[in-house]
Amino acid sequence: MDSAVAAAWARDEGYRIVTLTVDYGQRHQVELEAARAISLWLDAHEHVVLAADLRTVGGSALTDAIDVPRGGGTAGIPVTYVPARNTVLLALALGLAEARRATAIVIGVNSVDFSGYPDCRPAFLEAFARVAEVGTKAGAEGHAPRILAPLIDLSKAGIVEMGTRLAVPFAQTVSCYDPRTTGAACGGCDACRLRRKGFSEAGVADPTEYA
Length: 211
Hints:
With 211 residues, this protein is mainly α. The protein has a single domain (2-66, 77-202), classed as Rossmann fold (3-Layer(aba) Sandwich), CATH 3.40.50. The protein has seven helices and four strands, in the order αβαβαβααβαα. It has a two-stranded parallel sheet with strand order 1-2. It has a two-stranded parallel ribbon with strand order 3-4. Helix 2 (30-42) links the parallel strand 1 and strand 2 (46-51). Helix 1 (2-12) crosses helix 6 and helix 6 packs across helix 7 (190-202).
């Protein structure tokens, strides 16, 4: 949901959109199918799919044989944190951006209503922007792509409100960490709870199918 809203924001700002989907070994294909559908809705100039098998690394309920927690109340960084995932995703996005001569990379992280992931915080994005500046040809030539996080200071309700304004087809988006084979969201994981809370607080009907 957050990525779809961030991409819609970029399109609204006048950017030509290249979408990147990463098959990192997550539990389900529903997320990948949703990304394809949103890319079509955006009329993206290009939709690139890359594989980065983080299941080999493991260490997360999303990429390992660890149960996805439900019901909330977990202290600290939850087991749904995928080790260095956003670092890997942004590195792939940076390579693609440099190859396509892109001026910006847009990522849908936010640091308000989130599950405590360290790679969803402004300090991480600022550090990665520095990597782009010093570790790429584009950066050496003085035009590294900017790292834009338009949702960084928004609550989930704020994200729903922005997406509604931009006519994002929320029914085609996926948030659930452990959806059923039918595609229905589990309704109990942190991502589902935050999604439901966002729609409720925004006063917008939630189109999600919950198991």
